[in-house]
């Protein structure tokens, strides 16, 4: 069914799949979101299931995986006939992997489900940057055509953040006049940026970042591995996001961050040879490494600022980090200075990438500016 999703043989990547991770529809169980599952079960069992549920929270924490789990459950659950031999209310969202609905959902072949996501651009040479208004209209037509089949129907929109004003307004019209027996599951990474009228017509399921234990379980279920001694560091660096944890493990991010902390211990007299080595590493063939180093530097500055402003020590993400943060940011004044630098360097990095500035030069400049700030703070 080409209207439901891009074909499995399409050479373009899935826009809703994290690189190196299984697609959310392939995740049978989710970890760390028991409260959200309980809310769905309570609404279902009480017969008051809302027509639109917005799953919110940071990117990569399992919102899409939960949306697929809910959709599978709703399409597989039998209708309660109210008779004395009716099955007891379901206690979980579990659906057997060999259930016909599970098999069809895995193959993107479930006739009662619609997947709305970014498709190919006009030339079909790359993915579109937005969910087009025509795709929202296809979803509306799908519900009109499938109404004759009866029974429950579901749709996943992944993600609302990818909509432009035209497609958002088209979705709003659908939310204002929802089709019968349809449950919309809307994934939103930053709901504050959405139209208030869309948010007001949805029931929100707010998902929190995963704990270190839940993150390790989710990563293992998705085929990733993390050593027990690295669980805390991975949770800190990924902010509880499975997607970010995958990126960190695939690019050896924990070791990179440990190296960055080792380099920062030389502040305010930056170890130039070691800094140059890091800059050259980021200028290698893998652009993903360059992006990760920028992310880790930004994360280090954010943790430094938070330590100074709040005075609260954070769990170490690398050996010696706690002592380093306490030395470089002993008070609120230092924390504010590091926060201002983080904002400035983030803007500089975006401009540098936009004009294709040499990655090694950009990274070295950033490191030198961090060194200069450390020196200035030490003299006050």
Chart the SSEs and their pairings.
Elements (H helix, E strand, L loop, with lengths): L33 H12 L6 E5 L6 H14 L23 H7 L6 E4 L16 H14 L6 E6 L6 H12 L5 E7 L7 H5 L2 E4 L5 H10 L9 H8 L3 H9 L2 H12 L7 H11 L4 H24 L10 H8 L3 H23 L4 H21 L1
Parallel strand pairs: 1-4, 1-5, 2-3, 3-4
Helix pairs in contact: 4-5, 7-8, 8-9, 10-12, 11-15, 12-14, 14-15
Overview of the structural elements:
- The protein has 380 residues and is an alpha/beta fold.
- Strand 2 (113-116), helix 4 (133-146) and strand 3 (153-158) form a beta-alpha-beta unit.
- A 5-stranded parallel sheet has the order 2-3-4-1-5, with helices on both faces.
- Helix 7 (212-221) packs across helix 8, helix 11 (272-282) packs antiparallel against helix 15 and helix 12 runs antiparallel to helix 14.
- The chain has helices at residues 34-45, 63-76, 100-106, 133-146, 165-176, 196-200, 212-221, 231-238, 242-250, 253-264, 272-282, 287-310, 321-328, 332-354, 359-379, and strands at 52-56, 113-116, 153-158, 182-188, 203-206.
- It folds into 2 domains: 24-206, 3-Layer(aba) Sandwich (Rossmann fold), CATH 3.40.50.300; 251-379.
CATH architecture name of the largest domain: 3-Layer(aba) Sandwich
Work out the strand percent: 5-15%
Q: State the oligomer.
A: single chain
Structural class assignment: alpha/beta
Share of helix, binned: 40-55%
Fourth-level CATH superfamily of the largest domain = P-loop containing nucleotide triphosphate hydrolases
SSE succession: HEHHEHEHEHEHHHHHHHHH
Number of domains: 2
Strand order of the largest sheet: 2-3-4-1-5
| Global outline | elongated
Span of the ends, CA to CA: 67 Å
Radius of gyration: 24 Å
The major beta sheet can be summarized as: 5 strands, parallel
Total beta strands: 5
Average pLDDT value? 90
User: Under CATH, the topology of the largest domain is which?
Assistant: Rossmann fold
Low-confidence stretches: 1-10
In the CATH hierarchy, what is the class of the largest domain?
Answer: Alpha Beta
Q: How many H/I helical runs?
A: 15
